[in-house]
Amino acid sequence: FNSLNHDMTLPEFKFIWYMEYSHRMWGRVVGLAYILPAAYFWRRGWLSRPLKGRVLALCGLVCFQGLLGWYMVKSGLEEKPDSYDIPRVSQYRLAAHLGSALVLYSASLWTGLSLLLPQHKLPETKQLLRLRQYAHGTTALVFLTALSGAFVAGLDAGLVYNSFPKMGERWIPDDLLAFSPVLRNIFENPTTVQFDHRILGIASVTAVTALYLFSRKIPLPRRTRMAVTSLLAVACMQ
User: Fold this and answer.
1) Where would you find the membrane-spanning parts of this chain (predicted)?
2) Could you say which of 60, 90, 117 is where a domain stops?
């Protein structure tokens, strides 16, 4: 309000405040949903030794996620005497906050499903090992694409070009490498950040489609085939 948004009304500020407040409260509820049952199960002796290590790691990651959230928001409230741009949080901290959330969610889902569903005993064929490796590679690519989306959000890079598949009138925009040194463009140039996100998004959809087509050539359990098909459907919808 002091530096830029002089005409902001109190109701407009309250909307932002309640968004932030609800997010924090929800995060604390998630933390309690982890820690309280974990302490109860631990005390009752219901956790195996390997599961105890995983539970400790998940609870620690929940706390780390909250700490990262505070660290991220703090960057949006710091005075920047050399910049009169729109106040925003650091895109680096935003990407770290989103990345840790994705790791926490994936680890939680993996742990829950491994307890609920018995593991299939499949013969370790060459094709199956290749499918597993390709699935891990696709996972890494999707994770990287999501992180690049955090940089798009942090820099408002989505506002630079709103046409697809070209960016404006060109396939490769003129200001793609406008910053110096060149490496800065990947993380701080809104045009490059949007360009990278587009390329990574297309690559992710291509990788998921290839994973699906490759899986069709291998005899897989029904549950696995449903997972691969669902992955393709969600990738196309995304």
Assistant:
1) 25-43, 55-73, 93-117, 138-161, 197-215
2) 117
